[in-house]
TrEMBL record:
First-listed, main subcellular location of the protein, grouped into a coarse class: secreted
Listed SMART domains: EGF, EGF_CA
Family indicated by similarity: Belongs to the nephronectin family.
Name under which the protein is recorded: EGFL6 protein
Location(s) in or outside the cell: Secreted, Extracellular space, Extracellular matrix
GO molecular function, one term: calcium ion binding
Pfam families found in the cross-reference section: EGF_CA
GO biological process: cell adhesion; cell differentiation
Length: 197
């Protein structure tokens, strides 16, 4: 079976037919499935969609059980957690619904961890890190675009001279370079390439 556009998070099952891994959707399985919007809902109280998955959390005063349901808990009510709590060896601890969130100084509310600035994020050399609440994703660097080439998705250089997205002067020539472009005034003209006289 050959899938011309590839199956980013899935496998090719027939001519241009992808079978997506759990948590992904779309013709090429390149889109995250928002499980929180499914019927029946996967969580009893609240749901946070994550890349390829989801996390359940409970309203204040409830404790999250392993099956995603929430049980009323007097101890949780007393602690006043933002996203529900769990009891570990008789001690009550507040929970955060994602590994990209951490308990704040008060021990009750969750604050975002900026994986991009802490260096926890791993993006390949031609991708840049974009922080989101509770997570992050890798986006192509400026001057690169996401393309499906020889069986995989990669960030490839945009040829600004061909796509006409350069800002060279009318009397200048455009030269494509990796991730960018250069301008040089034509013969008989002088200047930076952006301004030629």
């Amino acid at each position: 079976a050959i899938c011309g556009h590839g199956c980013k998070y899935g496998e090719c099952m027939g001519p241009n037919r992808c079978k997506c891994f759990p948590g992904f959707t779309g013709k090429t399985c390149n889109q995250d499935l928002n499980e929180c919007g499914l019927k029946p809902r996967p969580c009893e109280h609240r749901c946070m969609n994550t890349h390829g998955s989801y996390k359940c959390y409970c309203l204040n005063g409830y404790m999250l059980l392993p099956d995603g349901t929430c049980a009323s808990s007097r101890t949780c009510t007393m602690v006043n957690c933002q996203y529900g709590c769990e009891e570990v060896k008789g001690e009550v601890q507040c929970l955060c619904p994602s590994s990209g969130l951490q308990l704040g100084p008060n021990g009750r509310t969750c604050i975002d961890i900026d994986e991009c600035s802490t260096g926890k994020a791993v993006c390949s050399y031609n991708r840049r890190c974009v922080n989101t609440f509770g997570s992050y994703y890798c986006k192509c660097q400026l001057g690169y675009e996401l393309k499906y080439i020889s069986g995989r998705y990669d960030c490839v250089d945009v040829n600004e001279c061909v796509t006409n997205t350069h800002r060279c002067n009318l009397h200048a020539e455009c030269f494509n370079v990796e991730g960018s472009f250069k301008c040089k005034c034509k013969q008989g003209y002088r200047g930076s390439g952006f301004d030629c006289a």
